[in-house]
Amino acid sequence: MEGVQEEADVVVPGGSPECGGSVVVYLKGGDDGKIERLSWTGQGDTISMGATSIVLERILDEGLSMEEILEMDYEEFVDSLGREVIGSRRRHATLGLSTIKGAIRIYQRKSRSAVKERAGG
Fold first, then answer.
1. What was the pLDDT predicted at 5?
2. Which residues are CB-contacts of 70 (< 8 A; sequence separation ≥ 6)?
3. Sign of dihedral through CA atoms 106, 37, 25, 63?
4. pLDDT (0 to 100) of residue 120
5. What is the DSSP letter of 2?
6. What gap in Å lies between CA 32 and CA 117, rounded to an integer?
7. Which domains does the chain have, with CATH numbers?
8. 102 against 6, higher pLDDT
9. Half-sphere exposure of residue 12: CA atoms within 13 angstroms, side-chain side
10. What predicted TM-score, i.e. pTM, was given to this entire model?
11. Which strand ranges, in their side-by-side order, compose the sheet holding 35-44?
């Protein structure tokens, strides 16, 4: 899903336009470590934008949990895209996945902090 998500729990930028592309990931957490909503915006080369779209679609279609996403292997993801297509632009191909993983880690930290505060500690 592409687009700004106003009710996102976490908004995380990744990459830079000078290095092939930049994306912003919008994540809304759900129950039991699942993602309720996930979307992105961005601009850049075909590899970074296409790979971001593919990984997000895969995550949503397969209903992956946050932990399953954090366990996704970058090399396996690049293999699934096709190394001959990616060439030397591995960082471009993994931009979306690394930004999504960053968003999840931030969400998890915020969630733990909120639980601690509610518990009085």
1. 86
2. 101, 104, 105
3. positive
4. 65
5. B
6. 19
7. 10-111 (3.90.1010.10)
8. 102
9. 20
10. 0.90
11. 10-16, 21-29, 35-44
